[in-house]
Design a protein that fits this description.
By secondary structure, this protein is of the alpha/beta class. It has 2 domains: 144 residues, Aspartate Aminotransferase, domain 1, CATH 3.90.1150; 272 residues, 3-Layer(aba) Sandwich (Aspartate Aminotransferase, domain 2), CATH 3.40.640.10. It is 37% helix and 15% strand. The strands form 3 sheets. The protein has a 7-stranded mixed beta sheet with strand order 4-10-9-8-7-5-6, sandwiched between helices. A 4-stranded mixed beta sheet has the order 1-2-3-13. α8 packs parallel to α9. It binds 4'-deoxy-4'-aminopyridoxal-5'-phosphate. 4'-deoxy-4'-aminopyridoxal-5'-phosphate (PMP) binds next to α5. The site of 4'-deoxy-4'-aminopyridoxal-5'-phosphate has 16 residues, from α5.
Length: 453
C-alpha cells in the first residue's frame, strides 16, 4: 500500500470531524478509511475492520464496493448529471414510481439530500397546510422524547435528545414534546403499556388543544435514542388518535427505511398508514446523497387549492434535489436488495443477533435489555438489573473501544449524556452472514468480560 501518512496528517490538520472532540488528536491520529468491500473496511494504516454499523450511522445497507451502483451512477452522470426546479429527470421519475410501488397508500416523492432536509420539508408542508386549510390553526408539530429528526435548527426543535439541542437554541415555537414508549424504562405501571404510552400523546393533544395540532413526527423504531422498539398495541392506538383529532402522521424512516428492519419500511412492520414518510440513509446506501419526502395524494392535493393566487403551491426547492446521481444510485440499490433477497436475509440475521445477545445476558449481568427489529439491534447496559441504574458511560465507551481493537466496529447510542440509554448498537449491512454476526457478538462478549469482568 502507498504511504498514506501525508493523508492522515492532512486530515489531522484540516478536517473537522463530525461528532468529535478534537482534543483527542493531540495524542492520537484520526482514523482515515481508504477502502471498503462488502462488510469490511480498511484504514490508511492498512488495518482491516468488520463494520457492524453500516458506515457509522446505519447507512450502507447493501455493503461497500458495489460496482453495479457505481456504474449506474457513472452512466447517468455522463448522460445528464443535473437539472433542478420545475422539471423532472428520467431517474427521478423512474425511482419515484418504483418507490411508490413499495408503499401502498403513498403517492408523491419530493427529493432533497439529507434526512434533516426531508423532515424539514414536512414541517414546512404542515405549516402551509395549517395556513391555507385551517385558518392558521393546526400549526403545531408533536415530537417524542428520545427521537431524533435532524441537525438543522428546525429539526433540532424536534429533538427528543436534549444533549444534541441544548447549546443551539433558541428554537422556533410550535414544537411540542410527548413521552417516549420504551417499556424497559416504564413510566406507567400498567399491563397494556403500548396503549398507555400512546394515550400519553392524546393527553398532550388535549392540553395543547386539538385544533392547534397539525402533525406528529415519530420514528418507527427509535435509533439514536437507544434502539427503542414499540410496545404491543402502541402504533394502532397512535393511528387511532391521529384520525380522531385530524392530525397528520409523519413517519421518520431515515434509519428504518429501505430494508433496515427486514421490510422495505419500518412502518410496514406495524400496519401504520402514514401521511408523510421521510427517508435518506439507506435509499442509496451512501453511494449518493439523496433523501425523499413521500406524501399521500390527499396531502399533495392540499397544495392545489386556489392556484390563481400564486401562493398555494409548495414554495420550496432543494438545489441538489436535482442531482440525478441520487435516484440513479437508489434504483440500483433497490434492485440489489430485491435480487439478492436482502430483506429476508435481514430478518433472519437480525434474529441471530438478538438470539446471540440474549444468550450473552446469562453471562453478562451488565446487559439489562436486548431490543431490535431486523438488523437494527441494541443491548442496553445497566449497573444493576434490579434498579436499572445505567452502566458507567466510560465503561460503555471502553467496550466500543475494545471491539475496535479487536477489529470490529460497533456503536453506542447517546455517548454525550452520562446515564442516558447506554445502548450498544449493531446495525450491519443487510448482506451480513451468520459468521459475520457471530464475529460481532463474540467481540462484544470478549469486550464485556475485559471491561466489566
Ligand atoms: N432522522 C433520523 C431518525 C436520524 O437518525 C437522522 C440522522 N442520524 C436524521 C433524521 C438526520 O439525517 P441527516 O443526518 O441525513 O440529516
Amino acid at each position: 500500500m502507498n504511504d498514506l501518512s501525508p493523508v492522515i496528517a492532512a486530515d489531522k490538520a484540516h478536517v473537522w470531524h463530525h461528532l468529535s472532540q478534537h482534543k483527542q488528536y493531540e495524542t492520537i491520529d484520526p482514523r482515515v478509511f481508504v477502502e471498503g468491500k462488502g462488510m469490511r473496511l480498511w484504514d490508511a494504516t492498512g488495518r482491516e475492520f468488520l463494520d457492524a454499523v453500516s458506515g457509522g450511522v446505519w447507512t450502507v445497507n447493501v455493503g461497500y464496493g458495489r460496482e453495479s451502483i457505481a456504474n449506474a451512477v457513472r452512466d447517468q452522470l455522463v448522460k445528464l448529471n443535473y437539472y433542478a426546479g420545475a422539471a423532472g429527470t428520467v431517474p427521478g421519475a423512474t425511482f419515484a414510481q418504483r418507490l411508490i410501488e413499495k408503499m401502498p397508500g403513498m403517492s408523491r416523492v419530493y427529493y432533497s439530500n439529507s434526512g434533516s432536509e426531508a423532515n424539514e420539508k414536512v414541517y414546512k408542508m404542515v405549516r402551509q397546510i395549517a395556513a391555507r386549510h385551517y385558518g392558521g390553526k393546526k400549526w403545531k408539530i408533536l415530537y417524542r422524547d428520545r427521537d431524533y429528526h435532524g441537525t438543522t435548527i428546525g429539526t433540532l426543535a424536534t429533538s427528543g435528545q436534549d444533549q444534541r439541542a441544548m447549546q443551539y437554541g433558541p428554537y422556533p415555537d410550535g414544537f411540542v414534546r410527548v413521552p417516549h414508549c420504551l417499556e424497559y424504562r416504564k413510566q406507567w405501571d400498567v399491563e397494556n403499556y403500548g396503549e398507555r404510552a400512546a394515550d400519553a400523546i392524546e393527553e398532550v393533544i388535549l392540553r395543547e388543544g386539538p385544533d392547534t395540532v397539525g402533525a406528529i413526527v415519530l420514528e418507527p423504531v427509535t435509533a439514536g435514542g437507544g434502539v427503542i422498539t414499540p410496545p404491543e398495541g402502541y402504533w394502532q392506538r397512535v393511528q387511532e388518535i391521529c384520525r380522531k383529532y385530524d392530525i397528520l402522521l409523519h413517519i421518520d424512516e431515515v434509519v428504518c427505511g429501505v430494508g433496515r428492519t427486514g421490510k422495505w419500511f419500518g412502518y410496514q412492520q406495524y400496519g401504520i398508514e402514514p401521511d408523510f414518510v421521510t427517508m435518506a440513509k439507506g435509499v442509496a446506501s451512501g453511494y449518493a446523497a439523496i433523501s425523499c419526502t413521500v406524501t399521500t395524494e390527499r396531502v399533495f392535493d392540499m397544495f392545489k387549492d386556489a392556484p390563481e393566487d400564486g401562493m398555494s403551491y409548495f414554495r420550496d426547492i432543494s438545489t441538489f434535489g436535482g442531482c440525478t446521481s441520487g435516484p440513479a444510485a437508489a434504483l440500483e440499490n433497490m434492485r440489489v436488495i430485491e435480487d439478492e433477497g436482502l430483506l429476508d436475509n435481514c430478518t433472519l440475521m437480525g434474529e441471530r443477533v438478538i438470539a446471540n445477545l440474549i444468550a450473552l445476558m446469562e453471562k453478562h449481568k451488565v446487559i439489562g435489555d436486548v431490543r431490535g427489529k431486523g438488523l437494527f439491534c441494541g443491548a442496553e447496559l445497566v449497573a444493576d438489573r434490579l434498579t436499572k441504574e445505567p452502566a458507567d458511560e466510560k465503561k460503555v465507551q471502553a467496550v466500543v473501544a475494545d471491539c475496535l481493537a479487536q477489529g470490529v466496529i460497533i456503536g453506542a447510542t447517546n455517548r454525550s449524556v452520562p446515564g442516558f440509554n447506554n445502548t450498544l448498537c449493531l446495525s450491519p449491512a443487510l448482506i451480513a452472514t451468520a459468521d459475520d454476526i457471530d464475529l460481532m457478538t463474540n467481540a462484544i462478549d470478549a469486550a464485556l468480560t475485559r471491561v466489566f469482568g
